[in-house]
Specification:
Radius of gyration: 15 Å
Helix content: 40-55%
Number of strands: 5
CATH topology: Rossmann fold
Strand order of the largest sheet: 3-2-1-4-5
Shape: globular
Bound molecules: adenosine-5'-diphosphate
Largest sheet: 5 strands, parallel
Length: 159
């Protein structure tokens, strides 16, 4: 049986921290689907199709990784794709409370699906999409935090 995992998130925008989790996840599972959630009520920073295109370009070097978007419940998306693992990254302890609640809710919704956490690589443990958005807004060097296709999108972003 193929072991397939889903790495869900907003990826708004994708960062080197996300790519680190993707690379490590690609090494652990036969297939990894990066799933961009488009449920959020709030207006996105980058349109979901742009996030998908940029991430797809970034993951080309890993043949067992692909990028999809999803609406609705994550556990339903996982079931549709026959994935038994939800992969998430943990940075500081401040991530824990939120991740713990989501993981337990997802377990109630589907006890067969496990959430697996990878501890962030130290180098990227401070890095969050919100940091990138704020640095870009204030005119700082956000390019150091994101892969090139994402930097281009931020530079050309319509506000
Ligand atoms: P969400 O909005 O669903 O929390 P994010 O796009 O912010 O989605 O993050 C997706 C996942 O990636 C989360 O599990 C988050 O903790 C993890 N993550 C984000 N940035 C990093 C990083 N720098 N290092 C490791 N994991 C990260």
């Amino acid at each position: 049986m193929k072991h397939r995992a889903i790495y869900p998130g907003s990826f708004d925008p994708p960062t080197f921290g996300h790519l680190d989790i993707i690379e490590r996840g690609a090494g652990l599972y036969d297939e990894l689907i990066v799933a961009i959630g488009s449920n959020s009520e709030k207006a996105p920073y980058l349109p979901v199709e742009q996030r998908k295109a940029a991430l797809s370009e970034c993951v080309q070097k890993w043949p067992n990784v692909r990028v999809e978007t999803f609406n609705g419940l994550l556990v339903d998306f996982a079931t549709q794709h026959q994935a038994m693992v939800l992969l998430r990254g943990l940075r500081a302890i401040s991530d824990y409370d939120y991740e713990f609640r989501i993981a337990l809710a997802n377990r109630r919704l589907n006890p067969q699906i496990e959430t697996v956490f990878l501890i962030a690589t130290e180098e990227f443990s401070f890095l969050a999409s919100s940091v990138v958005r704020e640095v870009a807004r204030l005119g700082g060097n956000y390019q150091q935090f994101v892969p090139e296709p994402v930097a281009k999108l931020i530079a050309n972003r319509q506000v």
